[in-house]
Amino acid sequence: MSTEETNHSSNEDMQNALFIIKIGGNIIDNPAALEAFLADFSKINAAKILVHGGGKIATKIGTQLGIESKYIDGRRITDDATIDLVTMVYGGLANKKIVAQLQALGTNAIGLTGADANIIPAKKRPVKTIDYGWVGDVETSGIKHQTLNFFLGNGITPVFAPLTHDTSGHILNTNADTIASSLAVALSGSFKVRLIYCFEKKGVLEDVNNDASVIRKLDRNYYQQLKEEKKLFEGILPKIDNAFAAIDAGVSQVLIGDARDLIKNTTNDNEGTLIY
Q1: Residue 54, marked binder
Q2: What is the mean pLDDT of the chain?
Q3: Of 24, 117, 162, 275, which residue has the fewest beta carbons closer than 10 angstroms?
Q4: Using an 8 Å Cβ cutoff, are 121 and 141 in contact?
Q5: 76 is in an annotated binding site
Q6: Element spanning 186, H or E
Q7: Fold of 12-201
Q8: Sequential DSSP letters for 30-46
Q9: What pLDDT was estimated at residue 152?
């Protein structure tokens, strides 16, 4: 293939590329880290969607308002008072601050929850052994990908707070990783999607005690080998399993890495772990 043909192919790939990027509380709770991340995010010259977690802001404001945070096994119990709190904080304060910062950086962003334009319907999690309250499980097949295609096609970058709705008038607190994965699956028919999870490590580590032991590329066979050799930290296994589930559902690639490496992690010369 000639240089001209290679460049043309590369340009076509970028035109059809979509980066869905999820950030968590370690960035949301750190103004300097968030500012640096958004500066990098704004430089991505392709279609992109940002999904953000809630961080500790809701707990802090809840304490000020006299709303006690309740957790079971690290998961927030979302009662009537708490769903109002997280809707206010996640969908309002956190989301709109991010949108305003992106506008200042030249990225035309729109802040959304799953209820807006009925984009992400969900169901209230059924009560089994634990009642999590107003917590939602995404109905991936119901995601309105046509609406998202409209935004993206007009140069508008969606920024999602970790909230969905049950189509009966209730907002639902929803895991941000799940929202990001569900959006990636829903849009995989229209785009070549790379789903990027930003977390506190540089990527998946072959040796959890050595931050330099990042696995750059991980396919299913290599993953099985590493699991059999018990080289991977157990806490990362659910993230990898979810990544392969997204790929099985049509997502092209999933990358797990450090938010500070975002620019490189949107290229083929990634710093994090590319799962495919």
Answers
A1: yes
A2: 92
A3: 117
A4: no
A5: yes
A6: helix 176-187
A7: Carbamate kinase (3.40.1160)
A8: -HHHHHHHHHHHTT--S
A9: 98
